[in-house]
Input
Amino acid sequence: MRSPAAPALLLAVALVMASPTRAAESGATLTVPGRSSQTHWAAALGPFVAVAWGAHVPDGRSDVFVAVSRDGGRQFHAPVRVNDIEGEARLGGELPPRVALVPRSGGDVPEIVIAYGSKTRSTAIKVSRSTDGGRTFRPGRALHAAAAGDRGWHALTIDAAGAAHVMWLDHRGMATAKAESPEQHEAAAMDGAAMALRSGLFYATDAGAAQERELLKGVCYCCKVAMATGKDGALVAAWRHVYPGNIRDIAFTISRDGGRTFAAPGRVSTDNWQLAGCPDDGPALAVDGEGTIHAVWPTVIGGDKPEGAIFYASSRDGRTFSPRTRIPTLGSPKPMHPQIVADDSGRVAVAWDEVIGGVRQAAMRTIRFDEAGQPIFGATTRLGLPDVPSSYPMLVSTPTGVLAVYVEGKAGGTSIRVTAGS
Output
């Protein structure tokens, strides 16, 4: 293992209860000195919280860092670099490093699993693990053979045995087609549906030899994939698919045998969003303690004045989803980047961001359900300060409540904020 990138100092923070309209302004600020910090992900297991993010230098190089808390987010240890090749990380808003936690018997410190994009001679999806609470990480291991073309927008989930399951979007087919016939490739580029058929959804696990395989083609190639694991071990995944006519709706699949096979893809909702391009905004999934799958995603409502919206739906059987329900947002015409958390206690919350008064603002709502299972949305909680940009919120659940993790600040000087949600 590599040595820690920094001494294990503690960053002391105080988390207080959120007001009905704005989250607590106190909290943790996570960053690396001299770098812009963004493109984050987080996971929690009991009071142990791990936040992974990209730390970017002005020349374009990026590294993945992780900071951990053992007290539910009140204090964080100093960040440690994950990637063993300096500057190799390939990151973006829809390409954050993913983090998951594996329980370990006989101890309160889980194993930390990180899946991240790498770019040296070619792009790759790598997995790195820490077995000492985030002090050191093993060298990143690619989940696939070297191949031409771009890949990323990946998702990570963990099974009961601790194996990492990863899905990503892979453009090796696009690279091959371009090399074999540049003219036909350029012609296909004018048709989004035809171009999507050259991009595939790939899957691999780090259990045993890494043997990636393509599950299907026709993916919208800049929207992140989502994955979650149910208590019964089922692996659930969702992504934005390109249907005939350039319809870009959310598709899903499920594996009930540990990833050996996946069901034929279904459609979360027939939104019929027609778009000749990629919205760079994918779905999010969570599975609660009863096995219900919760999904959120952005789309556009048609009509005389098309507007963006975020919707929620759920599935109890992994085969069909409930009719979509629009999530009330702050009122802008383009809410984006939805995330969702669900835990064994029945807590469900959603988060997103949108531009209000010229400033991007992150926000969240809780969800409860009536006797018929219909969602009832709580009051909106704004995250951060009204005059400071905040974006890409995500949520994790701890024994003391929900934590919100988001990017704060202006481009070139952003940091990661961790605060108490509602």
Notes: The first helix runs from residue 172 to 180. The CA atoms of residues 157 and 396 lie 14 Å apart.
